């Protein structure tokens, strides 16, 4: 997934020593006392099932979370070891309310006629930044003098088309960004000290200050302060700032993370050759690795997702939306080539994967990845731009790619909430 552009260094390998904390990049120490609110809200059976089949399969939490007859013993720090004890509910559905800010569809009550999303709060997250930042993000390519392909521009256009449709169905909708600009106040220049710290932890004692952006195949550019500060800016700080907006201000019932997918380039990325493949999939939070869970903040955020029961809502909504998207786009399911995601549900269109956004957003997240931007078909549709109605595009009569995307997501949400709120 998302291999069109040069991938960043894996930030989960960055361990912050001292203060008995192991934290991922730019993370604050977790507030373990927040788990007290979940005491007695989940049975042993449900906790075990979610942990072992969704969030930490293949024993990824072994040595970090121990389950006995009445409680889960959770390591809060590894050196020195310290733990939190989460008591289970009895082996019957608990009457104690699950503490969470969001509401599942079942809690919204019957939908009004024609308003299946009435009362629902939705945050639309147009992925990436676009505009002048697209090259830095490596979410950009251009063939000759053709229309550039910028993912951040494309996701924002989809969000602008989708929002009024959701509002018409009764939802309260907020976009996490409304322009081709960052949400975070940070910039690469303000993160250079943090970048040097990260490089030092990686064992790069004397990093070079800059790299040549034109040399995208340079294997050592990740050892430069410039590259690390850019990654911290657009990939880490930006998502963490959006998470603060979601969790502390908006407190939505659902977050839609809008993205386009991409395939790996062959040859020189400066002279791209389009690929024939085109596909779609959706992601829900899950499938944490053992290495990821050794970070205290990651382990804590995973438990918040698990205990708030976001997975059932994420999966049910994702499966409906994915099926409507597949019918509208005629795209086949994506197949992950690696173990960083596992297929979940019954549609073959939904996968569980631990991403920064779908982990930090403390509401159910539908993370959408339709279309392959550097495919022959999608590139042509991007050249055709946005338009009303239907026209011949990439060999078939179609809506614009942006309206097809937005219309299908709106139709999928309508179908899900109409059924769930009967």
Q: How would you characterize the overall build of this protein?
A:
The two termini are 36 Å apart. The chain has a single domain (11-420), classed as Zn-dependent exopeptidases (Aminopeptidase, 3-Layer(aba) Sandwich), CATH 3.40.630. Strand 5 and strand 6 (149-150) form a beta hairpin. The longest helix has 26 residues, at 225-250. The chain is built from eleven helices and 14 strands. The strands form four sheets. Strands 7-4-8-12-9-11-10 form a seven-stranded mixed β-sheet, with helices on both faces. A three-stranded antiparallel β-sheet has the order 1-2-3, with helices on one face. A two-stranded antiparallel ribbon has the order 5-6. Mean pLDDT is 92; it is low at 1-19. Helices cover 33% and strands 14% of the residues.
Concise description?
This protein has eleven helices and 14 strands. It is α/β, with parallel strands linked by helices.
Q: Topology, please?
A:
Layout: H1 44-55, E1 65-67, E2 71-78, E3 81-87, E4 121-126, H2 134-137, E5 140-141, E6 149-150, H3 151-168, E7 172-175, H4 192-201, H5 225-250, E8 254-258, E9 280-284, H6 290-293, H7 296-307, H8 310-329, E10 342-343, E11 350-352, H9 356-360, E12 365-370, H10 376-384, E13 391-393, E14 396-398, H11 401-420
Parallel strand pairs: 4-7, 4-8, 8-12, 9-11
Antiparallel strand pairs: 1-2, 2-3, 5-6, 9-12, 10-11, 13-14
Helix pairs in contact: 3-11, 4-5, 8-11
């Amino acid at each position: 997934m998302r291999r069109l552009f040069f991938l960043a260094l894996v930030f989960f390998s960055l361990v912050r020593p001292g203060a008995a904390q192991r934290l991922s990049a730019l993370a604050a120490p977790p507030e373990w006392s927040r788990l007290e609110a979940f005491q007695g809200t989940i049975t042993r059976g449900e906790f075990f099932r979610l942990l072992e089949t969704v969030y930490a399969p293949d024993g990824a939490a072994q040595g970090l979370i121990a389950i006995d007859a009445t409680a889960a013993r959770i390591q809060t720090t590894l050196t020195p070891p310290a733990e939190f004890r989460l008591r289970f509910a009895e082996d019957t559905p608990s009457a104690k309310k699950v503490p969470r800010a969001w509401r599942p569809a079942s809690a919204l009550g019957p939908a009004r006629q024609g308003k299946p999303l009435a009362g629902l709060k939705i945050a639309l997250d147009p992925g990436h930044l676009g505009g002048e930042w697209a090259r830095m993000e490596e979410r950009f390519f251009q063939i000759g003098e053709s229309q550039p392909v910028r993912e951040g521009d494309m996701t924002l256009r989809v969000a602008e088309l989708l929002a009024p449709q959701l509002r018409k169905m009764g939802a309260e909708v907020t976009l996490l960004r409304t322009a081709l600009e960052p949400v975070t106040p940070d910039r690469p220049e303000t993160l250079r000290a943090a970048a040097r710290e990260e490089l030092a932890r990686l064992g790069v004692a004397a990093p070079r200050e800059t790299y040549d952006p034109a040399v995208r195949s340079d294997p050592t550019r990740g050892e430069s302060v410039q590259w690390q500060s850019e990654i911290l800016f657009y990939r880490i700080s930006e998502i963490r700032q959006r998470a603060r907006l979601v969790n502390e201000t908006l407190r939505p019932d659902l977050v839609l993370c809008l993205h386009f997918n991409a395939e790996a380039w062959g040859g020189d990325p400066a002279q791209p050759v389009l690929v024939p493949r085109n596909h779609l999939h959706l992601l829900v939070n899950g499938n944490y690795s053992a290495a990821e869970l050794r970070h205290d903040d990651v382990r804590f955020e995973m438990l918040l997702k698990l205990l708030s029961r976001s997975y059932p809502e994420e999966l049910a909504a994702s499966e409906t939306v994915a099926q409507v998207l597949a019918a509208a786009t005629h795209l086949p399911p994506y197949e992950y080539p690696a173990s960083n995601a596992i297929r979940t549900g019954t549609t073959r269109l939904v996968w569980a994967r631990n991403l920064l956004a779908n982990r930090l957003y403390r509401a159910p997240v539908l993370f959408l990845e339709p279309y392959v931007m550097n495919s022959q078909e999608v590139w042509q549709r991007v050249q055709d731009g946005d338009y009303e109605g239907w026209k011949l595009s990439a060999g078939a009569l179609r809506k614009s790619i942006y309206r097809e995307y937005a219309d299908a997501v709106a139709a999928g949400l309508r179908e899900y909430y109409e059924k769930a709120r009967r």
